[in-house]
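REVIEWER CHECKLIST
Item 1: Sequence provided? yes
Item 2: Single chain? yes
Item 3: Sequence as submitted:
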Amino acid sequence: MGEAKNIRGLQLGRLIPRRTRQDMDELGAEPELVRASVFRQLRKEILSCALRPGVRLQERELVERLGVSKSPIRDALLKLEEQSLVEVMPRKGYRVRPISVSDARELYEMRQILERECVLRLAETAPEEVLAGLDRFRAVDEPVELATWIDYNRQFHLYFADHCGNARLARAARDVIEQFDRLTHASVTSTDAVRLTDFTAQHGAIIDAVQRRDKRMAAALMRDHVEASRRRVLGELANASIIA
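Item 4: Structure as written out by the authors:
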């Protein structure tokens, strides 16, 4: 029971207390919880660019820093490779996958398809209380800090996915939307506050259309919003040093 409490009390940066790691490996206590925690932590670090695109991932360093054995580290790296977030370097291990312009284009194509369907379903079928919940996204705290804005923007788009009424669509949209944290971190600087405010105004227009249940207008506004983001991000990535 004590070990289970230790695991549930995981802290950022060290997932399992060192003194319990060997016990966990020997007893097999809650191995799936450990593996899931390691995967979520590494994925979060990659998407937030705490682990920068192109950086080498040393298995020994990850074992030491996260306080786990090699097995959950290797399992997490395999899953991250499946999600195209890390890549294998022959005889050298893994590295965080550099951001490629072609990958960014594909993500935007998927986002246009998925978010259009989400906004249509929300405008057509969502109950009034769900539509009213969009009002929380009409503004973001000033001054516009990049990390705060990225979290706000992600939550805005995930709201449409999470309330679309289709679990499979929601999972697909969520996977794509969350990967945009990395693109935003790599392409936006603190000097972009004015443009970020412009995107917040676009959110307000989308909210207005959805709350009127104007499906056609809501879909058109979301399409234009995503396209404006695509043009800005691809323009910035074309000049970035972290592009593959």
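Item 5: Key structural point noted by reviewer: The chain has two domains: 2-96, 101-237.
Item 6: Recommendation: ____
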